[in-house]
Amino acid sequence: MNVSARPELAAELNNLFLSQIAGGKNYHHAIIGRRTANATFSNPHATDDATQLIFGLDLMPLLEDPNLSPIDFTLNLINEFKDEVQSGLSPYL
After folding, report:
1. Which of 22, 23, 35, 77 has the CA that lies 20 to 30 A from 61?
2. Terminal CA-to-CA distance of the chain, rounded, Å?
3. Nearest Cα to Cα of residue 3 among 47, 60, 59, 42
4. Stated pTM of the model
5. What are phi and psi of 69, to 5 degrees?
6. What pLDDT score was predicted for residue 91?
7. What's the pLDDT score for residue 20?
8. Distance between CA 76 and CA 79 in Å, rounded?
9. How far is residue 83's CA from residue 77's CA, in Å, rounded to a whole number?
């Protein structure tokens, strides 16, 4: 998700972690660094459309289906990723 448009809002939200920053860790810089790295590495073959990106996961299936366990939900995602990696690498091996 492109979150480049409101860097001032990101800074304000990051200030919510001041108690952790006071402990010696600068989460503010780490968060901005990770978002910037996500944008830079998101498409290695094109110039960046965004300066900051975050990744999210749609958890609605867990809310919509009370019979779906978090473990099964997660394992399904892992299996989809495994299948994608396998099909992407297979032509080269």
Report:
1. 35
2. 33
3. 42
4. 0.69
5. -85, 150
6. 94
7. 66
8. 5
9. 10
Provide the token pair at 20.
């952790």
DSSP state of 2: B
The string of DSSP codes covering 19-87 is HHHTTT--HHHHHHHHHHHHHHHS-TTS--S-S-B------HHHHH-TT--HHHHHHHHHHHHHHHHHH
* C-alpha to C-alpha distance for 73 and 81, rounded to whole angstroms: 13
pLDDT of residue 25: 75
Residue type, 12: E
Q: Taking the chain (93 residues) in consecutive chunks of 10 residues, what is each chunk's mean pLDDT? A: 89 77 76 92 88 94 97 97 97 92
Q: What is the CA radius of gyration of the chain?
A: 18
